[in-house]
Amino acid sequence: MHDVRSTVPKGEAFEAEAGLPRTHYLNATHGTAAWLLTKDHKRIGLLYLFAISFFFFLGGLFAMFVRLELLTPEGDLLTSEMYNTSFSMHGIIMVFFFLVPSVPAVFGNFFLPIMIGAKDVAFPKINLLSWYIAMIAGFMMLTTLLMGGVDTGWTFYPPYSTTGSSSNVVLAALSIFVMGFSSILTGLNFIVTVHTMRAPGMTWGRLPLFVWAQYATSLIMVLGTPVLAITLGLVFAERVFHFGIFDPKLGGDPILFQHLFWFYSHPAVYIMVLPGMGVISELVAAFSRKQVFGYSFVAASSLAIALVGFLVWGHHLFTSGQSAYAALVFSFLSFIVAIPSAIKVFNWTATLYRGSISLASPMLYALGFIGLFTIGGLTGLFLAALGLDLHMQDTYFVIAHFHYIMVGGTLLAYLGALHYWWPKITGRLYTEAWAKVAAITVFVGFNLTFFPQFIVGYLGMPRRYHTYVPEFQVLNVLSTAGASILAVGFILPACYLVYSLFRGGVASRNPWGAYGLEWETTSPPPTSNFLVTPIVTRPAYAYTHADVVSPYAGSTQGERDTGTEETQRV
Amino acid sequence: MTFPFMPEQGSTMAARVDNLFFFFLAVSAFFAVLIAVLVVVFAVKYRRRDETSVGAPIHGGLALELTWTLIPFAIAMVMFVWGASVYFDLARPPQNAVEIYVTGKRWMWKVQHLTGQKEINALHVPVGQPVKLIIQSEDVIHSFFIPAFRTKMDAVPGRITTLWFEATKPGRYHLFCAEYCGTNHSGMTGYIEAMEPNAFQTWLGGSPEQEGSLADAGEQLFNQLGCVTCHSGDSQARGPDLRGQFGTTVTLADGQQVLFDEEYARESILNPQAKMVEGYLPLMPTFQGLVNEDGLAQLIEYVKSLSQGGETPTPAAAPGGTPKPKTTPGAAER
User: Fewest C-beta in 10 Å: which of A353, A491, B123, B329?
Assistant: First the structure.
């Protein structure tokens, strides 16, 4: 596909085809130290994968407590304190320890350098440092949890967080403060890597859209995260030293916090979803075997989202008594930021037109993403509309909306990426039938969980309610039932993916017949990613027959059906 | 077990908000179905028939890009303008609204009618008459939410916010606190009782332990706290004469002009040096901590009453035609 000037010796290539390559990044060195002190971006990506998976299931556990409590209108399973702590820990863990790092820290770390033909990120040691910082933050959050957790919600609104709550606000805020540095370092690393480490011929116009999305995300991480750090620092200062910043009793203004917090946290929504959009561009292209329709529009829309996303924070304050004219401006800008997202959805859909579409499991996640993200985005318009937001603000409609973006969007993209790149990461093939079952289970469970919440939200059920009025019960029962299905959908991949490590067929270089530098190298790749530096001569996704009928393509099926573990395992 | 799909319509604005909602729903349904149908049709029609086939070499098209940029933009602008127009009507209370003071406190809603009637976690209002709530918080942020009226407003400590509605039919509607405020947040609920005007008037007059109107209570507090020593109304007094001032524009020491409204009154009590009236020395101490939100409501109402004639014998002090005529049916009736 790509022009590899100095060709790989034939013998070695064939050997790679027959089974796992003899040495690759996973078996190049052994021992705990070799992993914990690694500077290999791929191993760091895996370290993140373990940590993030742990936090995902931990956050999911709290979601389960919340959903079980809401089965009945009365508060009969948990006390109010426990319930409030549960939804707070669910939000904090999922946002700061899963969604924000998810796609960038795992797949960005692993694939961004490979996709631009680099040997590693620009600053490998800083990359490892960012993982350690994330782990320190993680341990601080686990300590918070063991001390009884925090009950402020993930938004930490003062004066409740600074003078009202008696929970462990300080440690939780510090933990997120520390986590922010990990984000900033990852973002910095990606920006420099994309600027300086591209392989010969990998022009900006040839960058895979995943790389564009990571680049736009990194800009937000570097520019936005410091504001969160400052904001939480101020909460700390008010809570511990009683500086009057947010509490009016001390001379502060609680609305100031909301401006500062959402100045980061709204762009943070795009930190969470843009990398997922990048994944979807890759998946749609790979499983349609076609260039993404309107490449430059999709790439530019990522940057547009990153920039305009910084100007819409005030739409979280429509009911806070802010000036009606400020509300008008923020509402207008919120409608504007919807346009680049719409452009992406239309372009992905148009990419399917006259494609060669395979409904393999990663593509099921991608198509699920398109549908759910569309609903998530459209319901965002409801909330951007001033006249509707006064009714809907702080109701379950908001909960449903952002779960359609965060779970229907980001999480589906994450799972899509995990399935798409699993053979490359591990060199193993998982059972496709199970993967399809899981994808459909997630899709069905997700919709059953969150669609009723749109209705119960418009009916007026406020968020963060431990008890509620009886007429909301039917919809809440549906939602809890959906959540159980969703849980099954998440446990399934954990099972068959782990199983594949031991019993899965051996993956070829390019099991999907996809186009991209990551499919040029062995599965798993060598520590240096490529044995020779690739030279790029064609744009991204330039599918031709020659690529697909290359000796490596199409071997997927054969291997999956006939491959015997004994001969292929190394 | 009831299983409603839409909340009850209990106010004049409810139907307008619902119409806006249905418009958004229609647009959303159209685009969601369009995308879903295209995805499914393409996925079936262009399914991979041969392992080695690739998609058609289509790279994009400017006309299509412009189409799906400009059409959504135009629709978004219609949504924005419609949404904003409903908002301005939701946000701006009519001039003749009945005023009621509401204070949020963990975990209850305290209500003070101008007549002096007090309620907790309940609010009685007349139907067919606009009601303006003047909302404060004693501790953390709360939010006064009435789903049947399709509106809410945060109770923010340190400032006054307002919310208005006009109930259209008698009945009892949910009142929720919509901003998370700690342990018993979901217990900070109550009801709105919309009543026929006659029944409402009877209810207002029917409380035996009533001590007097809100303004009367304010006057007592005004004397108790010693406000009256400086704001005596004499020309030699150390503080400005408050008669006839509410609703007018006040010139400050730095030449700025501010509207003497509830927020200004509140700020001047708690942080007197922030906006000093021209010609007076910064002598006034803060009353932060000495007077709570209920007391503030009473003081503000007393100051307002000084500008409404009838209450105090100073009709001359009121500048001709106050810009915000206040109707206080409760007070008038008494």
Answer: A491
CA A160, CA A154: separation in Å to the nearest integer?
Answer: 12
CB contact under 8 A, B43 and A81: no
Residue B262 belongs to domain with CATH number: 1.10.760.10
How many distinct structural domains can be found in chain A? 1
Asked, for residue B287, whether it belongs to a domain, the answer is yes
Interface contact A473-B178, CB threshold 8 A: no
Kindly list the distances between the CA atom of residue A324 and the CA atoms of A315, A533, B87, B88, B301, in Å, as whole numbers in the listed order. Answer: 11, 58, 9, 8, 25
- B166 belongs to a structural domain: yes
User: Contact A458/B54, CB-based, under 8 Å?
Assistant: no
Q: Write out the E strands in A31-148.
A: none
Residues of chain B under the 70 pLDDT cut: 1-2, 206-211, 309-334
- The pLDDT-based confidence of A535 (bands split at 50, 70, 90) is very high
Euclidean distance between CA atoms B264 and B240, whole angstroms: 14
Tell me whether residues A80 and B184 touch, CB distance under 8 A. Answer: yes
Within-domain flag for A3: no
**Cβ–Cβ below 8 Å for A375 and B32:** yes
Q: Is the pLDDT of residue A194 over 50?
A: yes
Measured CA angle at A414 (ends A133, A560), to 5 deg: 120
B68·A320 Cβ contact <8 A: no
Q: Which of A249, A291, A339 sits opposite B59 (nearest CB)?
A: A291
Q: Which residues of A touch B78 (CB under 8 A)?
A: none
Helix (H, G, I), strand (E, B) or coil at B34: helix
Which 155-194 residues of chain B touch chain A by CB within 8 A? 156-159, 161, 174, 176-187, 189
Band of pLDDT at residue A504, cut at 50, 70 and 90? very high
Whether A466 is in a domain gets the answer yes
Q: Among B7, B31, B72, whose Cβ lies nearest the Cβ of A460?
A: B7
Q: Is residue B333 part of a domain?
A: no
Residues B121 and B100 in one domain: yes
pLDDT tens profile B123-150:
999 999 999 999 999 999 999 999 999 9
Contact (Cβ atoms closer than 8 angstroms) between residue A407 and residue A98: no
Question: What residue numbers bound the domain in which B199 lies?
Answer: 7-35+63-210
What is the per-residue burial (b if ≥16 Cβ within 10 Å, else e) of A268-282?
A: bbbbbbbbbbbbbbb
Residue B129 shares a structural domain with residue B224: no
B219 and B181 both lie in a single domain: no
Chain B segment 35-74 residues within 8 A of A by beta carbon are: 35-36, 38-39, 42-43, 46-61, 64-65, 68-69, 72-73
**Closest Cα in chain A to B92:** A324
Q: Looking at CA atoms only, how far is residue B252 from chain A in angstroms?
A: 21
Domain check: are B206 and B110 in the same one? Answer: yes
- The interface predicted TM-score (ipTM) is 0.91
Residue B329 lies in a domain: no
Domain membership flag for residue A67: yes
